[in-house]
Amino acid sequence: MAGSEITIAAHDGGSFMGYLSVPASGAGPGVVVIQEIFGVNAVMRGVTDWLAGEGYMALCPDLFWRQEPGIQLTDQSQAEWDRAFELFGGFDLEAGVRDLDATVEALRGTDGCLGKVGAIGFCLGGRLAYLTATRTKADAAVGYYGVMLDEHLDEAINCPLALHMAGDDEFAPAEVQRKVHAALDGNSRVALYDYPGQGHAFARLGGEHYEKASAELANGRTLEFLGANLG
């Protein structure tokens, strides 16, 4: 199943690309796929197509468009890692959240979207998935190994939120994870899933830390969560 590129209007002027994948039925609930630091690359497009195969209208926006539109990197060379971290360092978090809000609303208004719209994000996108749950009108959100979540624990969570946390995540140390648990374990809207011994990006197909069993477990939990909250 292959998707197509569409144009999304930004709230503050301009526009950016989104990769849209549609289920075979032509209709379904919406899911915004939030990129890692490598842009809307083959991995993110694969996630988007996977969700379409599960019956969702899936849309992955180019959140680095304000720096370099259309960037597609891999995790296979040091030069690409260096460029990815440059883009991460230059990323305007507030503008990115506004762009996600625009994407949620654009997907909600797309022909074939059945109304409810969720989000799923990885790494930087995991942080942004958390902020999608606190700052947008998304109906549900899922974050995989989100970074810097401890900076946002005072924000009200407005929709169901699932977080997949890698036990040996070098970008989310144990102390940060303890803070996340302390703040959210009692929140009825939040489901926290721990993956002991797993490194950052354990669900990135083809990545150095990819671990098939944990990735499949997390993805199964994600589908169950989305089905319960977007169906």
Report on the structure:
It is a single chain. The chain is an alpha/beta fold and 231 residues long. It is built from six helices and eight strands. It has helices at residues 42-53, 78-89, 93-108, 124-135, 174-184, 212-230; strands spanning 4-9, 15-21, 28-34, 57-61, 113-122, 140-144, 161-166, 190-195. Strands 1-2-4-3-5-6-7-8 form an eight-stranded mixed sheet, with helices on both faces. β3 (28-34), α1 (42-53) and β4 (57-61) form a beta-alpha-beta unit. α3 (93-108) crosses α4. The protein is globular and about 45 Å long.
Fold topology:
Blueprint lengths: L3 E6 L5 E7 L6 E7 L7 H12 L3 E5 L16 H12 L3 H16 L4 E10 L1 H12 L4 E5 L16 E6 L7 H11 L5 E6 L16 H19 L1
Parallel strand pairs: 3-4, 3-5, 5-6, 6-7, 7-8
Antiparallel strand pairs: 1-2, 2-4
Note the main attributes of this structure.
231 residues; alpha/beta; eight-stranded mixed sheet
Helix content: 25-40%
Q: How would you characterize the largest beta sheet?
A: 8 strands, mixed
Number of strands: 8
Radius of gyration (CA) equals 16 Å
Query: What structural category characterises the helix and strand content?
Result: alpha/beta
Secondary-structure element pattern, one letter each: EEEHEHHEHEEHEH
Give the CA-CA distance, first to last residue: 22 Å
Instruction: Please give the count of helices.
Output: 6
Task: Using the 3D structure, state the CATH architecture.
Answer: 3-Layer(aba) Sandwich
CATH class: Alpha Beta
